[in-house]
Structure prediction request, 274 residues.
Amino acid sequence: MLLLAAAFLVAFVLLLYMVSPLISPKPLALPGAHVVVTGGSSGIGKCIAIECYKQGAFITLVARNEDKLLQAKKEIEKHSINDKQVVLCISVDVSQDYSQVENVIKQAQEKLGPVDMLVNCAGMSLAGKFEDLEVSTFERLMSVNYLGSVYPSRAVITTMKERRVGRVVFVSSQAGQLGLFGFTAYSSSKFAIRGLAEALQMEVKPYNVYVTVAYPPDTDTPGFAEENKTKPLETRLISETTSVCKPEQVAKQIVKDAIEQIDQSENFGSLKGK
Prediction:
């Protein structure tokens, strides 16, 4: 009987998953929505926050450097469309302690309401040949790029399911679709995000919560400039075969596709090189 019940439960979940794509999700309305952006003090994350703020959202910026957060807050506030909008800054390392991340998310929700969209943009890249990289580099990249996305997502997903509304965005990389020379540590950490996102989407889609994975190409950000300092020649030559995108362009595409729930792998494929 237990096996029969388990089989029925699995079949029911799979049926829900197969039927749910037939019901097109309504676009997420950003005016008045609460959007949390990790890694929001610079680069793509900051540009995503600006794009959402332009559309009337309330923003919680999460990053480690408090000075950069405050500077980003000033830049974002210039794009307000009404006097009710708020930009909240929280300084925390999203990759180190889940309880801390959970607490700051609770603080943000107490001030700005439940999270409608979470954008996991915190990340870092270090390039180098496999045998030249310290083992600690692999550990650090998995911690920042993977666990730094797991922890905030874990902190918001229960409330999203209860409310039956929400978007979770994971910012991966084109190196998260294809392993590249010099990126043994970075690519693997970004590949992990895809597995997490695909499995999570199966669990939350019946609750009207949708997961998006963005795979942006090389983008002109402080992180990209830092990455270039350690790139082997071979990696640099591969990178130079395409042009570098502007963060504003990438951010606009991510926001558009997240609120409309569109597959981003194709969109960033066409974006690359423009």
User: Anything to note?
Assistant: Residues 18-22, 263-274 have pLDDT under 50 and may be disordered. Residues 135-163 form the longest helix (29 residues). The longest strand covers residues 58-63. The CA atoms of residues 47 and 210 lie 22 Å apart.
